[in-house]
Amino acid sequence: MRYVPIQHVKAESFLAKPLINDNGHILLKAGAQLNESLIQKIQRMGFLALYIKDEHSQHEIEDVIEAEVRQKATKSLQAFLEGSIDTRKMSTNDMKNLQNKEEEVKSVVKAIIDDLFLQKDIVMNMVDIKKVDDYTYGHCVNVMLLSVMVGIGANMNKQQLYDLAIGSLMHDVGKLFIPKEILLKPSGLTNDEYIAIQQHTTKGFEWLKNYSEFSAPARSVSLQHHERVDGRGYPNGLKEKDIHIYSKITSITDVYDALTSDRYYRRALPAKEAIEYILGGGGQYFSIDLTRIFAKKVNPYPLGTLVRINGGMVGVVEVINNENFQRPIVKILQEKGVKVTPWLCDLYKERNLVIESIIFSV
Ligand SMILES: [Fe+2]
């Protein structure tokens, strides 16, 4: 399967991953064959890219955790946060219920860490397909997963990973206190609206004070994840040494996940370009050391990516080289614009060949 922006999806291809709406309901099953009207319908629903299976790309792409675990994490986070926004009129029973929801979030986070801790070399090979411009809990879960992977790369122990996971999972909780019409405004924010959005950091931190069983550094991620190492972030303009490592990691994974998500005003960036943006921001926005660890955890050319190689070759990524993402094995489909009998080209051995660009159709 491969990731394809919707305008490049061909009518005869098959959906490789189910389309799921914000409530976790399946809109279209994996394996469904697409046609023009279905593609247009999907686009109108707000999906700007899909995972498809076609004659070029038959392999599966493994997520770092099971789809069911990802879904459980998303749902339990949503249930907990939305249930806990206003606790003033709650009965004892409601409070008990809420406590159970909180326990569920904690236990799913612990299970994810136990799982990822056993596979320390695991790499993020895919992006989550979401609808455009939705503030979804899926984003929070993604940011948590990426953050934990970076934490593992930074040799954190399980307790630290747990704190990092909770902090990154809850990083944007303050957005629940910002009016939706401001949050979802595509462009042209007034100065006041911009300030209102920035307040999601302080509001989230304030709210998390009710949850002292989460450690102070975990809670501070909500406050610090828009700080930048050069001191030009918000809300406090902290410099690198004053920003907690959990927040520094989350600032990277938050931006990465936003860049690789579709927006009404721009298509999601391919992983490769988003990674380059993150690396380019090292020392200014992000901690340089952490951007380097991050880049080892996210593959810019996931399986199934169609690539152009110098010398006029076009092919599809067949086997990932985990030591060097730039040099996978590519199944060559075309040479100088002419279709050829597919053959495997190992870029690790062919040192004079390099991937020039990602393409979406041949
Ligand atoms: Fe944020």
TrEMBL record:
Coiled coil: none annotated. InterPro entries: HD/PDEase_dom, HD_GYP_dom. Residues 114-310 form the HD-GYP domain. Gene3D superfamilies: Hypothetical protein af1432 (1.10.3210.10). PROSITE patterns: HD_GYP. Transmembrane segments: none annotated. This is HD-GYP domain-containing protein (C-di-GMP phosphodiesterase class II). It comes from Alkaliphilus hydrothermalis. The lineage of its organism: Bacteria, Bacillati, Bacillota, Clostridia, Peptostreptococcales.
